[in-house]
Each structure stands twice: as structure tokens, then as C-alpha cells.
Amino acid sequence: MKRWIAMLLASLLLPTSLSAAPVRIGSKQFTESVILGEIARLAARQADIPVTHQRELGGTSILWSALEHGDIDAYPEYTGTLTHELLKNVPPDADIPTLRAALRPLGIGITDSLGFDDTYAIGMSEDRASQLGIARISDLAQHPALRFGFSNEFMDRTDGWPGLRQRYALPQMQVRGLDHALSYRALASHVIDAIDLYSTDAEIPYYHLRVLEDDKHYFPHYEAVFLYRLALEKDAPAFLDVLKKLSGRIDEEAMRHMNALVKLHGEKETAVAANFLGVPPDVDGAGLASRLLQRTLEHLKLVLISLIAAVLLAVPLGVFSARSKRLGHVIMAASGVLQTIPSLAMFVFMIPFFGIGTWPAIAALFLYSLLPIVRNTYAGLVGIPPDLRESAAALGLPRGVRLRRVELPMAMRSILAGVKTAAVINVGTATLGALIGAGGYGQPIVTGIRLDDIGLILEGAVPAAVLALLVQGVFEGVERWLTPRGMRIEARD
Amino acid sequence: MPNPSNGSPEAFELDHVSKRYDGVMAVDEVSLNFPAGSTTALIGSSGSGKSTLLRLLLGLEWPDQGQVKVDGRPLENGRVLELRRRVGYVIQDGGLFPHLTALGNLALLPHHLGWSRERIRERAEELAALTHLPQGVLQRYPAELSGGQRQRVALMRGLMLNPDALLLDEPLGALDPIVRHELQDELKHIFEQLGKTVIVVTHDIAEAAWFADRIVLMRHGKVVQDGRLEDLRRHPAEPFVTQFVEAQRTLRESSP
């Protein structure tokens, strides 16, 4: 029995490290990264190497930590991100050999440049820029009323907005964070005046943007490379050969063209990557119904496992809280603090413990479910009239029997309401699981936001809303079924 | 008719017992004896400490000072479960659990002690006859019962294990006068029939005199007078006794 439990625990805790078979490529949540991931996957497949590609795993921190922990084997990255974000103690203009030496002690390898430099730049609409006479970033200092909309990552990173503002002494106060995919639209509809962009963005010609000259050479080089685990040198040398052969093959023009095909012409990343390599694309067999079914199963798995685990822990915690006032304060405060952690951060926090994929998402949802259930269990129990509690004691029933036969049944309605709240919140929050590779209804939403494809967003959002309503309905039935009949009728006098 | 009692009736004793709530003396140095098989009425205005006194006897509260003795032995934590099973306790609203039917309420403790379904049902029917509970009421939930029925079921719950003592805390306090009158007759009849140690708390002196020869009058946590109604009338220990007796206009001629 103990061995079974140990094995079960192990399979829960180490979901990925047990299966060594295929090489796992990851990509960030933007089109270029997904295309590069697909190019690597298709090139490896061409060489008969078993390989999987976990697309759109959120931002740099998720990919980097997944690589460090061995949850993925390789992902496309940029040298500027390494020098400014990921590595301490390297000069900002470090070249690739320097980076290679700095990465080696971490067990991470780096390819040579894939052939293009995708650096940050600041862009304005051509009309507005010429009207104000702005051609260089330093010209922006003369126009303090301009409104900036920057991607959230650019807002935060040291080589992003904070450093840029300092270098150019920019006075603008109206600066807000936006999703990168939405910022072009915001610019086109004149809600903002300037945005950050990548030099390979497909939208630059499409939206008639002027890329401002970085006259003080603030932005570092962002040579595209692949990072990989050095363990691959032993485990999958053939894959490394494939990866290294990609070096120098993709120039800025080719990358911008591929980005445009996906973002502006609605082609699939796989097709674009296959076309670039001159190999046949995968057969894209899954129709809407089977996609929906798979995502529903993934989503239900996230919600149900986390919810069941939460009930098993939170109900006892609620019972303890009701028993001891002091312990109750501690438990309630702790689960309250958990609730205040922003959802995406919570998902990312789980990666060091659970890797990427389903389990960190379940762990995050589990933690979110605790508070409503603990609080409602507590409220249900302390809400029992004292004379009834005392009547049970006066009968001569032991504590445990009183709890099971009298107190919990009387608190059942409140407990179930807490579980229902947790379940409905979970259905919504679980959509974020897609950012750490958990799949579910969040997957089309994430892709849809990236590609600015409303249809795709709805493909995830509508089923999620329907599921939330269903959960609500099911729980109302369960409530009626589990609430003792005597608790539902009003007293006669 | 009810089974003969398992053991001898319970004797309770309070020895200089004090109990304080938030600095207020609820019970103040009370010493009282409740001999086995006796019936006693505890009386006083609300807040006089009479309910607390009952709860001390069951180990639902523990004294700050002094000692509670049951059958001559001090009451300890290890004894309370066993003691409570030998004592029936009935409170003002009955204290029935709303999520269980009347029968479910009766069955709770016997079921835990391993009684068969049959035995529980038989005992319930026996007690229904004793308390004049109408047929079919046992299947209903407390919210579907009248006040009088609720008190009858509560009394039955207290009597299920055929206890040696009955402690009743304002058992008729929430009932209308007619039902109350009817139940007073029945309760007195039941007390006489069962021969148990009975302590009944009430604030109505007529009811107290109807149930018991011995009346203990309490005020501010202290015993003011302990005796028969006659003694309280003729030889009041202090003016408050007369005041309390006179204030009750419903005193019946039939009472001793």
C-alpha cells in the first residue's frame, strides 16, 4: 500500500522527468517564437528525431525556468534578453562566445545566431510622426503630452522602458502597459501615440509605421539563438546537429515575411515553417469538435483535481478554524494571502515545484480554491446555534460523532456554497493554465489574442463561460440533493 | 410501560461552587444536595444562575471554585460522556437537530451505541405512548412540529436510554398557556411514574410548586431560600422571597 502511494506521489510530483523519450522544444507566447519552435520541430522530425513542441508557454521567465529545471530541452531566445534579463555579470554588449561561457556552468548551451537581429524599437504612425517632426527617439523629449503604450514585459525589464526613459530623459507621464498584439490596434485607433515593437514585426509596413532612430544606441542587439540543455550533447546529439544547422539560415527579411504570413494572412505557423524548410507540413487533422472535446477534458481535469484536493484539505482546515479561534485567524489569514497573489504569478511560482504543464496549474488552482471553502466551512460551523451544539454534547455523543452527525450536516449548505464558488472561479482561472502548457480552453484564447483572431478567442471563451454556467447548475442540484430536507423547510411558528 | 431503571437514581451535590462569566458571578458559592430519587424545582428570575447550575451538573461548564459531585464522587472530564448518557437533558426550545426527523433525533445516541433499528423503533413507540405523541409525528422534521410536539420529542430523546436522572431547563417556557397546562400534568405524571432524580428549572412559582415539594429560590447566583412553598410564604428568608412569590398572580389553589 505504502509503495503504491509513493509511486502515485512520484508520478504526481515528477510528471515530466520520468519520460526521457522525445526532445521537448518550448516557445514564448508570440508568433515569431512559435514559428522558430515549429522550424526546429519540423527540422528534427525530418531527421527522424522524436520531438514535441510546447507552444506559447508565456513569457521569458517561464521558458527560462522550465529550461533550467529540465521541463523543456530547448527554446528560441535572444542575446539581448540573456545579457539584460537572465544573466548577471555579463557586459550588456557581450557576444555569443562570451554568453556561451557564462551559460555553461548553468548546464545550458547556446547556438550561433540564426541570422537576424530582432531588437526593440519605438514606433509611431507615419502621419503623426511627420506632423510632429519626430524621426529619432531623442525628438520625443520635446513632446511630453504623447501617450505611450508598451508591452507589459517592456514596461518592467531593465533594458526596456525604465532604462530608455533615463537615457533619453523622456518626460512623458501617460505610459501604460498593453498586450503587444493589441498595441498596434491601439496605435491605429489613436488611443496611444507610440509603442514598442520588434524590428521583425510584420505590422510595421502594414500599419505604415515609422521606426524611430535609436540615436543614442540604447537598445542592445537581440540576435535570435536557440538555448538548450547541455545534457542533450549526450542524450540527443542528433537533435543538436539539427539545431546548429539552423544557424545563419534566417535573415531579418525572411523572418518578417514569415511573421506577416501568420499574423496578417492567417496562415498556420506549422505551414509557414514547413514552407520555409521545404518539407511537407503535418496533417492538421483535428476538427473543431475533437479540438473542443480534448480541451474540455483538459479543462475539466484542471478544475476537478484541484477542487477535490482543495475540499479534502479545506474542510478539515475550516473545522480546525471553528474549533480554535487563534488557529482560525492564522488559517484564514494564510488562505486570504494566497487569494491576493495575481493568478499569472501564482502559476509561475508553481513551476520550480511542478515543472510546466498540467500539475503546476492544478497546484495553483488548488491554492486558490482553499479560501472560499475554508471560510464557508468555518462560517457554517460557527453559525450553528450554541444551544443545539450544547444539546449534542449533553446527549453524551463524543466529539467526532457530533461533528459528523450533527455539525457538518448542519453546515453542509454553507460548505457546498463555498465549493461552488471555488469551482466557478476555477473554471475561469484555469484558462490561464495555457500559458504554462496546461492546455484547456485557455489555449485558443492565448493564440487568439496573439493573432488578433476574435473567432479563436471565442472558441475558448464561449465554452469556458458555458462550463461555468454548467458547474453552477450542477452544484445547485448537488446542494439540493445533499442539504438535509429538514434544513430546507421553514419552522412552523 | 418503561423499563426498570438500570441503576439507582443519581444523586447530585454542589460543594461551595462558583462560576464566573466575564467577571459576573453566575453562581456564587452555592452548596446544594439533590438526593437520589428526589424532585427539585430551581426557581428565580432570568440571570439568577439556575441554568448555569444545571449545566455545571452535566459537565457542560466547569466550576471556577468548589466541586460538583455525582453519586458521591467528584465529576471529572473522563466521566462526563458516561454521566451524560445516564441523564436526560431537555432545554427550552427542545434543542432538536433540524436536519434529522423526530425519529432521527431520538436515534442519534442509541444508534451510536449500536442499538438495532428495531430496538430503537420499539423504544420510540413506547415513549410516544408515555408522552402522548400522536402517530406519524416521528417521521416529521422539527420545523414541521408544533411547540408542544417538539418538547415531547425532546423529552423522549432525553428518556431513550432510560436515564437515572432528568434535568429540565425551562422545558415549557416557550409554550402557549393551554399546551403548557396540559404538559405540566403529563410531566408530573411521568416524574411520579419513573421515580428518577429530577431537577427542573423554571421561573414560574406555580409550576415549580406543581412539580416539586422542594423549591430552591435563587437570586444573583446565590441560594436565597430552600424549602417548601409553604415555608417560602410563611417564613420568607428575606423580603425578596415575598416579593417574588407575590409577583406571581397565576398561583393556583390546587397547588400545595
From TrEMBL, chain A:
Residues 296-475 form the ABC transmembrane type-1 domain. Residues 1-20 form the signal peptide. It comes from Dyella psychrodurans. One of its GO terms (biological process) is glycine betaine transport. Its main location: membrane. Keywords: Membrane, Signal, Transmembrane, Transmembrane helix, Transport. It is found in: Cell membrane. Pfam families: BPD_transp_1, OpuAC. In the N-terminal section; belongs to the binding-protein-dependent transport system permease family. Belongs to the binding-protein-dependent transport system permease family. It is a multi-pass membrane protein. This is ABC transporter permease subunit. One of its GO terms (molecular function) is transmembrane transporter activity. InterPro entries: ABC_Gly_betaine_transp_sub-bd (IPR007210), ABC_transp_perm/SBD (IPR051204), MetI-like (IPR000515), MetI-like_sf (IPR035906), PBP2_ProX-like (IPR041894). The chain crosses the membrane at residues 300-320, 327-350, 356-374, 414-436, 456-478. The keyword Isomerase does not apply. GO terms for cellular component: ATP-binding cassette (ABC) transporter complex.
TrEMBL record, chain B:
The keyword Transmembrane helix does not apply. Signal peptide: none annotated. Keywords: ATP-binding, Nucleotide-binding, Transport. It comes from the Bacteria. The keyword Transport applies. Residues 12-245 form the ABC transporter domain. Transmembrane segments: none annotated. PROSITE patterns: ABC_TRANSPORTER_2. GO terms for molecular function: ATP binding; ATP hydrolysis activity. One of its GO terms (biological process) is quaternary ammonium group transport. Belongs to the ABC transporter superfamily. This is ATP-binding cassette domain-containing protein. It comes from Dyella psychrodurans. The lineage of its organism: Bacteria, Pseudomonadati, Pseudomonadota, Gammaproteobacteria, Lysobacterales.
